[in-house]
UniProtKB/TrEMBL annotation:
The keyword Hydrolase applies. Residues 470-640 form the Helicase C-terminal domain. Keywords: Hydrolase. SUPFAM superfamilies: P-loop containing nucleoside triphosphate hydrolases. InterPro entries: Helicase_ATP-bd (IPR014001), Helicase_C-like (IPR001650), P-loop_NTPase (IPR027417), SNF2-like_sf (IPR038718), SNF2/RAD54-like_C (IPR049730), SNF2_N (IPR000330). One of its GO terms (biological process) is DNA repair. Residues 1-21 are annotated as: Disordered. GO terms for molecular function: ATP binding; hydrolase activity. Residues 1-18 have a biased composition (Low complexity). This is Uncharacterized protein. It comes from Perkinsus olseni (Perkinsus atlanticus).
């Protein structure tokens, strides 16, 4: 019996039912056909599509002297795999699939084989890998089989997945309202690992509560050191008082505000912002002993090994008995950002260079005068890195899996036509800046001074100014509906203009409705002590319709579930930051039936390059954190804003902008950081 199904994109899938057994493969065997150089290779004798070459062509492909490279890796489910990125000739594919008992082909993925470890019981993985490599190298055409590095096997063997069940202490069961089932599972995961783990749940699932519950389980080892972004210090204090009432009073919680403060001897919780962790007196208890319970919130803040905060925080975590690291976006951009988290929590973790070589892509950057520096970008061996994380330190759940009552995100890509007459002058400046960037993009002028990055930042800022009129029109349209919304931007100048425009819209609409509509604004200059008051006002006052927010200053720690609409007037090149911002509304407490997220993108502008960059990075980070490739999944809006008259396009800006986005997103030179700090909201 034979059954054939076809799929789009020039590939077909055959299902062959057979009673024969080939090695360890039996039953339904799924075989994929794919195109290479415009030709479809016949992968099983006797079955071919109309465009398949004759059998003699396949024979030639097997005997033309070409060799194929393979590598061993660990799959997302922890299994050993043999993989290749090459298209294989029929003979080699058949030999690997049916004539090598240790290998089992992966459905619908030619060139990928799972190792049947059950055939070698009581054998170490290192020996199994050696056996697979030896068997593969016997086959004609197999040139190189890259083994799994010893450090990967060593880390997994020295940090085995715990199997014992640790009972939940009664004190945790007494927390009211009680933990949700998935939150209990998170606490159990942490207790199994003796209180050293990464809580990597998607934003809005209650990681703070889980961390406090874990800390409560180790109450005899208090005081607890909480390290967090400065803007979240009072959020943490409020959460501790809410969830641990009966165990902690207000005077037991000390929030460190400045370097002159000293830690109180009777404090049960000490809350310190990342910048103040550079001060040695906040790295230990008053008596000089180490903190034994440490919570590190938004731990992606220690991604840069050269940063002073990272150098200060890592030893504190390593010396603690219990270390609960928290981040909904452990890797904001690329795999390299995970190294310090793993290094903090795992014993005998390898050097940073070994990690980079295994899981990152090396990119050479010419910086002038014949000098070349290496940048570690993107991700590779993604399944293995995901397996390494989840089998040792990380538990991660997604809202779509554990909170079925939450609405799905509806992302909308809104094209803007820029037609405002004043914007013509701004765009002329943008185009002049683009010409400068194009010159600086030549290798001969890449002197490492950060000029190109600064040039892009200026182009980016001016693009925001140029599109403010179209953004205002779109917000006016949205506010015709009875809804609350968050409006995000990055640059202070854009935030200022948004506040002015939105306030004008609300005054007009409020006057018509007999209401006193208003807004709140939170950015990097908003005092930490004032933020909770503004959040409360937005959440409780129905006439406060809009929150104007800085992407970087407000992407963490704020709950603004009174809104169900999010608008990005400007984009940001880091997908993790964008998702953190979205999660201000898409989290526990959201009662609306739909959450709409609008990306406002000016046609032919750097917005398009930033959006493309976001999509690429999202695919990488989702693969290593979630075990599967995901995209932003935004659909195009059928509505265009900005007027019928089209401004002359600035599509020539796109090429330089896209290249600059990648450079800026990975590392901004100090000079550019100073420039950005002066205009960032």
């Amino acid at each position: 019996m034979q059954q054939r199904t076809a799929s789009s994109g020039g590939s077909s899938t055959f299902t062959i039912s057979t009673n024969q057994q080939h090695g360890n493969v039996d039953g339904a065997i799924r075989i994929g056909f794919g195109k290479h150089n415009g030709k479809t290779f016949e992968e099983v004798a006797g079955y071919r599509t109309k465009s398949a070459p004759a059998a003699s062509t396949c024979q030639n492909a097997a005997s033309d002297g070409k060799t194929y490279n393979f590598r061993m890796e660990i799959g997302s489910n922890g299994s050993l795999k043999l993989t290749t990125g090459d298209w294989l000739p029929r003979e080699l594919w058949r030999a690997l699939s049916f004539e090598t008992p240790l290998l089992r082909p992966v459905d619908n993925n030619p060139g990928e084989y799972v190792v049947n470890e059950a055939l070698m019981p009581n054998t170490s993985r290192a020996k199994i890998i050696d056996k697979v490599i030896a068997e593969a190298k016997k086959l004609p055409g197999v040139a190189v089989v890259e083994p799994i590095p010893q450090f990967v096997l060593s880390v997994l063997s020295s940090n085995p997945t715990p199997t014992e069940t640790i009972p939940i202490p009664e004190a945790i069961d007494a927390i009211q309202p009680p933990l949700k089932p998935y939150q209990r599972a998170g606490v159990e995961f942490a207790l199994q690992r003796r209180g050293r783990c990464l809580l990597g749940d998607e934003m809005g699932l209650g990681k703070t509560l889980q961390a406090l519950a874990v800390a409560l389980a180790y109450r005899t080892e208090w005081p607890v050191l909480v390290i967090c972004p400065p803007s979240l210090k009072f959020v943490w204090k409020d959460q501790i008082l809410e969830w641990l009432k009966g165990h902690v009073r207000g005077d037991h919680i000390q929030v460190i505000m400045k370097g002159k403060d000293t830690i109180q001897s009777d404090a049960k919780f000490v809350i310190v912002g990342y910048p103040l962790m550079n001060n040695p007196k906040f790295q230990t208890r008053p008596n000089g002993s180490n903190f034994q319970v440490v919570i590190c919130d938004e731990c992606h803040a220690i991604k840069d090994s050269k940063a002073q905060r990272t150098k200060a925080v890592i030893p504190v975590i390593q010396r603690a008995n219990r270390a609960i690291l928290i981040s909904g976006t452990p890797a904001l951009n690329r795999a390299a950002e995970l190294y310090n988290i793993l290094y903090c929590l795992l014993k005998d973790f390898p050097s940073e260079s070994k990690f980079h070589n295994r899981y990152c892509i090396k990119e050479q950057q010419h910086i002038g005068k014949g000098r070349v520096v290496n940048k570690w970008v993107g991700a590779k061996n993604k399944e293995e890195l995901y397996s390494l994380l989840t089998s040792t330190i990380m538990i991660r759940r997604l809202k779509k899996d554990v909170l079925k009552e939450l609405p799905e995100k509806n992302r909308i890509k809104v094209p803007l036509d820029i037609t405002d007459s004043k914007a013509q002058k701004v765009l002329a400046e943008v185009q002049q800046a683009q010409k400068t960037m194009r010159e600086l993009s030549k290798e001969s002028l890449m002197n490492g001074s950060g000029q190109r990055s600064e040039g892009f930042l200026e182009v980016w800022r001016k693009t925001g100014e140029a599109k403010i009129g179209a953004v205002k029109d779109y917000l006016d349209y949205l506010l015709d509906n009875d809804c609350k919304m968050l409006v995000f931007a990055h640059h202070r100048s854009m935030l200022d203009k948004l506040e002015e425009k939105v306030d004008g819209i609300l005054q007009v609409k409020g006057s018509s409705a007999g209401k006193n509509y208003g807004l709140i604004r939170i950015d990097g200059q908003t005092p930490q002590t004032k933020r909770p008051e503004l959040v409360k006002k937005f959440q409780e006052d129905e006439d406060i319709r809009v929150a104007v927010l800085s992407i970087t200053a407000c992407s963490e720690g704020l709950t603004l579930t009174a809104a169900s609409v999010v608008v990005f007037a400007e984009l940001y090149w880091v997908p993790g930051t964008i998702e953190q911002a979205e999660a201000r509304v898409h989290r526990i407490g959201q009662t609306k039936s739909c959450v709409d997220i609008h990306y406002l993108i000016a046609r032919g502008s750097p917005d398009e390059a930033v959006y493309a960059c976001l999509k690429r990075k999202k695919e990488d980070t989702s693969a290593i954190l979630n075990g599967e490739v995901e995209t932003l999944k935004a659909h195009d809006s059928p509505v265009r804003f900005g007027g019928a008259k089209r401004m002359r396009p600035i599509t020539d800006l796109y090429e330089a902008a896209e290249a600059a986005v990648e450079e800026v997103s990975e590392t901004i030179p100090p000079a550019a950081k100073r420039s950005a700090a002066s205009i960032d909201g």
